Amino acid sequence: MERTLKLIPFTFHLKRNIFFLIAIIFFLSSCGTRKYTVKNDTKASKAADAMANLQSKSLYRFITDWTGVKYRFGGLDKGGIDCSGFAFLLEKEIYGITLPRISREQANVVKRKNIDNLKEGDLVFFSFGGNDVDHVGVYLNNGFFVHASTTRGVIVDDLTLPAYQRVFVKSGSVN
């Protein structure tokens, strides 16, 4: 009878430990399959939507290939690129259009277009340092554009942000 009494606590602890082990395994495996989503109203999700809604898949590939490349004044390669160099390369590779190399000169060759009528590939111009155009980006859709930011490198950004609205100068198409 003593043997039976000793086995019951051992059996009880063994069953409890097995149950606990199964619970931990189940919990850990469920964590690995959990899907994390970005809230639909965040800037990142809206930028991702703008990329997903691009008409040109070659434009999508070009942007994803360059995203994150650091800004370098006068740069024209993956070691660093400036805004006009990025617009220059994008327009040439994706649309076969040769732009001038400097943003101010790029602004002079576009056919002015209302910001509400912009199409994928149109250019948007800004003046951060006064009256002259000193920054350029390429419009995507739904108020988003891609550019080489001096602080964040090549990035998709929201044209409707007040920081860009205050310095927006002109938009238009090359063709």
From TrEMBL:
Keyword Repressor: no
Residues in the signal sequence: none
UniProt family annotation: Belongs to the peptidase C40 family.
Swiss-Prot/TrEMBL keywords: Hydrolase, Protease, Signal, Thiol protease
Entry-linked InterPro entries: Murein_DD/LD_carboxypeptidase, NLP_P60_dom, Papain-like_cys_pep_sf
NlpC/P60 domain span: 53-175
Source species: Pedobacter riviphilus
The protein's name: C40 family peptidase
PROSITE patterns to which the protein is assigned, alphabetical: NLPC_P60, PROKAR_LIPOPROTEIN
